[in-house]
Write a structure and sequence with these properties.
heterodimer; A: alpha/beta; 6-stranded mixed sheet; 3-stranded antiparallel sheet; 15 strands; B: mainly alpha; two-stranded antiparallel ribbon; two-stranded antiparallel sheet
């Protein structure tokens, strides 16, 4: 129960009136009662304006002493005349006489005695009055109170808007001190953005820092602050969307207690790229390097990786790319692959994989919906000639990622049927509008084709797989096997397309991938797709074309930007391959397989993220 | 570094590091293009392959071919601070020539070593002395070589790479060789051409079909 008592005294019988005190009390009361500001109880709280002493005592009784309803946070606000007399500070009320303060004014000492009796867990006192710094005279007594420091003892925060020997200034629009405090409560003045609640002491310090009032200095006291202070809600909490990410970096375990500058910048770079200019390969590389700093501390690494997921996913959601959250999740998981021997890392990787599957399902559903609403939804920004190159790659990417989900889910899992439906709907939509863009144009598509066809075979969509594979094979034959190199720069795409249109490649030899892996994927599937006899008659058109497959020593290496351990297998049509069967006979029997399920899952997504490696094990089972 | 500051902590004065990197990149591209042009004399760019990972390759379809392995070619080139400070533009052609020459030398050495090793392994070597003279050696060499033909019937004649002295001798032979030598050479060449065409037909026959259906 949070309760509030606001007192504003403009009118006095025996003292000069004050301008703006009632306004201050009313404003403070109104703001702190708002659920998203103070959240104080609207029934229990009280606002008294220019009251008598009796009215104040009655209001306090109504706020603090109601049977069965203990107040745990109590805030007391006073604006009006104040004075120090003897060993106490007095708040002047309507009938106060300056020559009889102890009998006619409300002393802080009395308030403290009452609070000692009511013992709310936290008390916040704000006094906007002259000489209010004189509260120290009463606080000294409080410091000697018995029980102070015990776990169940009360805490007190107090802000006095002027020093003991100063006046508290204001206008008809309110006191300077109250206005400054209200600015913090309502977010016009920044205090912090890290905590959901603001502490009165912190507000007081902030006001002290920034105020420019001549001859008036706020005084701030905090006594016995045991529990988390909750004066009011923090309007700036999480206002900076990067706050959660900054928190993770701030808490990054470092031997020196502080993260190194290089690591800090690397992490920020990775984070910043998530909603724009995202390069998945670079993201994995940078996160791998960052994670490697904690390679010897798997528990810490697991904790940090787990904490990064939410802020990074949040940032990724700011991207217009629907698949961005999934790619981010995949990137984080793949970056953990080198460390996945450790149990804490395996647990995080499994959690990430589950999240990744959910993200991909959501992305797939969204794409299906978008295609139903707009059949051209897969076209890029301007939908112009650039998509002659990028659209086929985009199509293979969405199909490849959805294929990867299907490869990742357990067939007995109930979401399997959901994934199958999404893939079926997606294929129907894509084949309906984009059939002629289902083609091979760049060797970076090899991994996507591998995942798609592997999934279709798993789903027993033989006919669909045959049809699509046929389209891709035909496109390779049509253009003589001349696919763009996987890392072709965007500036060279036009040159490539012009040469492709002319089927004249002499001047762009360096833009052509040699050998290619896309044909290897297709030939590896030729038997299972019953397409050997269909394709063999066309192979002469690819005479001289080199095809390859890089087989790593271990698929655990698939998260590295460059994999050193492994062998490149090379074939050449017209030299050692004349039929699909020639190729299949020569595929090695000792082709490696992933060591465990986690490696299997993550290496598939690594292949999609890097686009320069293929998860052969998904299709190469003989 | 001869300046007082070490590289990592050198202070900068209007230095644009991105521009510096862009210049290095363009220089590398220039050198790369230059080297490729020079290599084209010996190696068609269609026969140049690129691997993204690993350092070895093998041919499962032709296991008798030895696995290949990457070799690193490198060179160091220096540019003196004083030359830059004195705006000596000749720094550029000197640098380019130095790097290009060094890398080309390494490439050609590797190229000839590879060809030579293959010849040694297959026994495709001829000794001038053992053959009894240049005419006989040349005929013996021609006898050991296989010509290749393209699918459209064009036969690729072999190239002869020789040092200056031998090249002169070969030129002289071409002009002043004995009629018997010239006749034998011509006959051998025709036979090799026919063999090449026949071999190419055999190769094409390994496909299910070759050429458009009539």
């Amino acid at each position: 129960m949070r309760a509030l008592l606001c007192i504003g005294c403009d009118s006095y019988d025996y003292v000069n009136p004050v301008a703006g005190a009632e306004l201050d009390a009313r404003r403070m009361y109104d703001v702190l009662l708002q659920p998203d500001r103070g959240g104080y109880d609207t029934i229990r709280s009280r606002l008294v304006l220019s009251p008598t002493l009796e009215q104040v005592r009655r209001a306090i009784q109504e706020v603090l002493f109601v049977d069965g309803q203990k107040v745990d946070t109590f805030t007391f606000f006073f604006a009006g005349h104040g004075a120090v007399h003897g060993s106490s500070f007095y708040m002047a009320l309507r009938e106060t006489r300056l020559d009889a303060l102890s009998m006619t004014a409300f002393s802080l000492a009395e308030l403290l005695r009452i609070l000692n009796d009511a013992s709310p867990a936290q008390t916040n006192i704000v006094i906007d009055a002259c000489e209010s710094g004189g509260v120290i005279k009463d606080l000294g007594t409080l410091l000697k109170a018995e029980g102070l420091g015990n776990a169940d003892s009360s805490g007190l925060s107090l802000v006095a808007t002027s020093a003991m020997d100063q006046e508290s200034v204001g206008t008809v629009n309110g006191g300077f001190g109250t206005n400054a405090i209200l600015d913090c409560i309502e977010g016009r003045t920044f205090v912090n953005d890290r905590s959901p609640f603001l502490d009165l002491v912190e507000i007081g310090r902030r006001v002290s820092e920034i105020h420019e009032w001549p001859d008036q200095d706020p005084v701030v006291h905090g006594i016995n602050l045991i529990d988390t202070p909750r004066f009011c809600r923090n309007p700036k909490f999480n206002a900076d969307p990067s706050t959660p990410f900054r928190d993770v970096i701030r808490d990054w375990p470092a031997p020196s207690g502080e993260i190194s500058k290089d690591l800090y910048e690397a992490l920020w770079r990775s984070y910043s790229s998530l909603n724009r200019s995202f390069r998945s390969d670079r993201f994995v590389e940078e996160m791998s390097v960052s994670f490697a700093k904690l390679a010897d501390e798997p528990e810490n690494l697991a904790r940090v990786a787990a904490r990064l997921v939410e802020p990074m996913s949040q940032r990724a959601r700011e991207s217009r790319d629907v698949f961005q959250p999934a790619r981010t999740c995949a990137g984080l998981a793949v970056a953990l692959l080198p460390f996945s021997n450790e149990e804490p890392i395996q647990e995080v990787a499994i959690d990430l994989s589950r999240l990744l599957i959910q993200e991909l399902i959501a992305a797939g559903k969204q794409l299906v919906a978008d295609l139903k609403a707009d059949k051209y939804a897969l076209l890029g920004g301007s939908g112009g000639p650039a998509d002659l190159f990028f659209l086929p790659i985009r199509i293979s990417s969405v199909l490849g990622w959805m294929g990867a989900v299907r490869l990742a889910v357990n067939p007995s899992d109930e979401i399997c049927a959901e994934v199958d439906l999404i893939i079926d709907e997606l294929l129907e939509a894509i084949e309906g509008t984009y059939a002629n863009s289902i083609l091979a144009i760049c060797d970076s598509q090899a991994a996507s084709w591998c995942c798609l066809f592997g999934a279709l075979l798993l789903m027993e969509r033989q006919e669909t797989a045959e049809r699509l594979a046929g389209r891709v094979f035909h496109s390779i034959v049509q253009y003589g096997g001349k696919l763009a190199r996987f890392d072709i720069s965007s500036e060279k795409v036009l040159t490539f397309l012009l040469a492709r249109e002319q089927k004249s490649y002499e001047k762009i030899v360096d833009l052509i991938e040699r050998p290619i892996e896309t044909l290897t994927v297709l030939l590896l599937l030729a038997d299972r797709l019953n397409l050997k006899d269909v394709w063999d008659p066309s192979l002469w058109r690819l005479d001289g074309l080199a095809l390859s497959a890089f087989l790593p020593k271990s698929y655990k290496e698939y998260s590295q930007s460059r994999i050193d351990d492994g062998r490149n297998l090379v074939w050449t049509v017209g030299f050692d391959v004349f039929t699909a069967q020639d190729f299949l006979k020569a595929w090695p029997n000792d082709s490696p397989v992933p060591e465990n399920e986690i490696t299997k899952l993550l290496s598939v997504f690594a292949a999609l993220l890097f686009s320069d490696r293929v998860p052969w094990f998904t299709i190469s089972a003989k | 570094m001869t300046s007082e500051q070490s590289g990592a902590t050198r202070r900068h004065y209007f230095v644009d590091e991105d521009a510096d990197r862009a210049f290095s990149k363009s220089l590398n591209e220039f050198l790369d293009a230059l080297n490729k042009r020079q290599r084209r004399q010996f190696l068609s760019p269609e026969n140049v392959q690129r691997f993204r990972h690993g350092g070895t390759w093998l041919h499962p379809g032709k296991p008798e071919i030895d696995p290949g392995e990457m070799q690193q070619h490198s060179t160091v080139a220096e540019t003196r601070f004083d030359d830059v400070v004195n705006h000596d533009l000749k720094v550029l052609p000197r640098l380019i020539e130095q790097i290009s020459r060094a890398l080309n030398e390494q490439f050609f050495r590797m190229f000839y070593q590879t060809v030579s090793s293959a010849c040694d392994k297959s026994g495709n070597t001829v000794s001038n002395k053992a053959a009894g003279g240049l005419e006989q050696a040349l005929l013996e060499m021609l006898g050991k070589i296989e010509f290749s033909a393209t699918p459209d019937g064009k036969v690729n004649l072999p190239q002869i790479h020789a040092g200056p002295e031998v090249a002169e001798q070969l030129k002289a032979l071409e002009e002043h060789g004995s009629p018997e030598f010239k006749a034998k050479f011509a006959e051998l060449k025709e036979r090799k051409i026919a063999d090449a065409l026949a071999k190419e037909e055999q190769r094409k026959a390994k496909f299910v079909r070759y050429g458009e259906e009539l």
